[in-house]
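Input set for joint prediction.
Command: fold jointly, output tokens.
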Amino acid sequence: MKRITFIAAVLLAQFAIASQNRKVLIIGMDGVRSDALQQANTPNIDALMSNSFFTYESYHRGITVSGPSWSTLMCGVEYNKHGVTDNSYANSQYNTYPYFPTRAKSCLPDLYCVQIVQWAPMSDNVYNDGWDLKLLVQDGQGSQSVTASQNQLVNPNLDVLFVYFDEPDLAGHASGFSPNNPIYMNAIESVDGHIGSIMTALQNRPGYADEEWIILLSTDHGGIGNGHGGNSSQERTIWWIGSGNNASPIQMTGVTDPGSIALGNYNASVGAQSPCQADIAATALDHLLRGSSCNPTINPSWNLDGQSWLDSLYTPPALAVNELPVDNFDFIYFPNPSIDLVSLWYKNEENEAISYEITDLNGKVVEINSNVQGLTPNKLNISFADKPKGEYFITLIIGAQRQTKKVIIE
Ligand SMILES: [Zn+2]
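tokens >
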């Protein structure tokens, strides 16, 4: 009996180490115009915005139809790569451009990822999506999505949850996509209530205090009259919310419309200045894979169109103070433990030459890198991808000053 208890304790300890604390919730609302969201009474979305990076000026860059749009959000690439141009999902290229959970699992195979949707094509017509569980509830029944979400959120192993609500789109098709249509506005406000229930379930997770969630919200398109699929500003003007742990909201305003691939006038350099649908997948991947050498910001082989806004919505705990070290020649580093990539921030007021050494626990030097070029004047990344897991000492050498700190690679 005693032995069994001991083995169970060891297994639990291993489980605690294996489970990662960076987690992602994505909430999708189908067919929500930006002007309608701004005018609707949505206290739960407002609460999420209170620590968000967000904009009401995200311009659709592709085809304003659900299949291509959700594919862009989930794959991090536009329709000219993922291939989906309508709701038949014909010509999809998910083997080349998979959903982001597949990308994340290529680095962290143990992630547990769940999708809960109300619209069958998003469940049935998609493959290579990386979901461990795909739940399809009745179309237009948001309360079923909430119950399914609550059932999933009690699982401590859950790492990624995507929940999708169809009610605003159904209301828009039935009676008009307009902030002047109370039926459409009620549908948006009803989903806001569902979001409140999901956030309560999230915050009631037993391990919530030790977890680092980001919550990403967006829509697939707006609408005009009783439909969508065109390029009017009512269909193309959408919104983007990334809620993390930053203390005060950051709203991006005055966004320039970068045009769209569907219109043939897309300007990528303008597009890079503001968040778009493909940035949902990229930001989720950046969060899940922080500290890994397969992080999307340094993994161009994935050929993502989206970029990460994580640094605008989320401050890693080790850097919560957001300051450089107090002492000249000192450094701080993150994450620790790491999978294989460690970032160092340092103060080098004299602008001296920088190098570093990595030694193992026996004092053996396993890497020397002299005359380092930092990413910025105050930051450099060190990859441990070519080294066995274990503990190492990093010695940062600035001029003649040396500082040594221990890091765990697991
Ligand atoms: Zn629709």
